Amino acid sequence: MSDSAVHSLAGAAGGIVAMLATYPLIVLSTRAAVETQNDDKTVIQVGFDTVKREGVRGLYNGLSSSLVGVAVTNGVYYYFYERSRSIILDSRAGSKALSTLESILAGLIAGSATAIISNPIWVIQTSQAVQSAGTTLPDPSASKPRKIGAVETIEKIISKDGLAGFWRGIGPALVLVINPIIQYTVFEQLKNAVIKSRTAKLRVNRQGSTVAVLGDWDFFILGALSKLVATGITYPYIVVKNRLQAGQVHAEQYKSSFQGLSTILKEEGLRGLYKGSGSKLLQSVLTAAILFAGQKRIYELTKKAVSSLAKPATRTVVKQS
């Protein structure tokens, strides 16, 4: 198996681990983002309301769709990135490393393909995550709202909007392709700055040519900071995307990403553009930190597992006379 395929599997595995660890925060931020009836409702209040209505299980609505989405998203992204990278490198002679602009181009191609292909999965997940949002609190003696499965959610989306419903929110989703580009650009700049600073100190103290090496906690902190910047900049588009994917608003209401932002700003003020941002920022930061800190180890474990599975079983052949 190629090294890029192993990286793809490692990315999928890391994404699943991070998703399992932070999923309740995704549900809370999504519900807060699509809730337009009460501008003063905080993420904590949304969390209490969810648990009262549906129990702790309500914090995991749409988890199965999300795990599938993470695996598909990472797999598709790595595939298209590596394909784009190969095409770019094959089109010219010389260096076999991508320039910054070429890396951005490959990222845009991979991100756009991933957004288009995986959008139906995230529409299903978002619809499940907010299925009970905005409902009134039932009587304490009444049973909790019935949890709607993926199949029933798919049927509801088709009956309401047809097949086009699976691509609700694709506009802002394509805009959000810039999120990982911002994240990795900030990460590389921070990493280079830290390495340069520490290397300079090492050379002053030891009079040698030692280059500083970053540890797991360095990657954890730098990954968290870079994701904080990227998500903070692009969060208003996440609000628009979530509302469209959840079916809480219709395409004619938000005819474009910019028009959606303008509508929210006019009707709900600046706070409306950052509804649920607290839990989303926390979830995004923790996810990125886990992935950056564990990337090397997850990659090594994945490569070892793939190698052991690919190794042909030895058989003893007895020659018959």
**Molecular shape:** globular
* Weakly predicted, low-confidence segments: 133-142, 313-321
Counting DSSP E segments of at least 2 residues, the number of strands comes to 0
SS class: mainly alpha
Helix amount = over 70%
Sheet-strand content, in percent, reads under 5%
Helix segment tally? 10
Q: Whole-Å distance between the termini?
A: 39 Å
Total number of domains: 2
Layout of helices and strands, plus pairs?
Layout: H1 3-34, H2 43-54, H3 63-90, H4 100-129, H5 150-161, H6 170-175, H7 178-206, H8 216-246, H9 257-268, H10 277-310
Helix pairs in contact: 1-2, 1-3, 1-10, 3-4, 4-5, 7-8, 8-9, 8-10
Give a verbal description of the structure:
There is one protein chain. The protein is mostly helical and 321 residues long. The chain has two domains: 36-167, Mitochondrial carrier fold (Alpha/alpha barrel); 169-275, no CATH class. Helix content is 70%, strand content 0%. The protein is built from ten helices and no strands. The longest helix is centred in the last third of the chain and has 34 residues, at 277-310. Mean pLDDT is 76; it is low at 133-142 and 313-321.
Quick overview of this protein structure:
This protein has 10 helices and no strands.
Comma- or semicolon-separated keywords:
mainly alpha, 10 helices, 321 residues, MCP_transmembrane, globular, 0% strand, Mitochondrial carrier fold, single chain, 2 domains
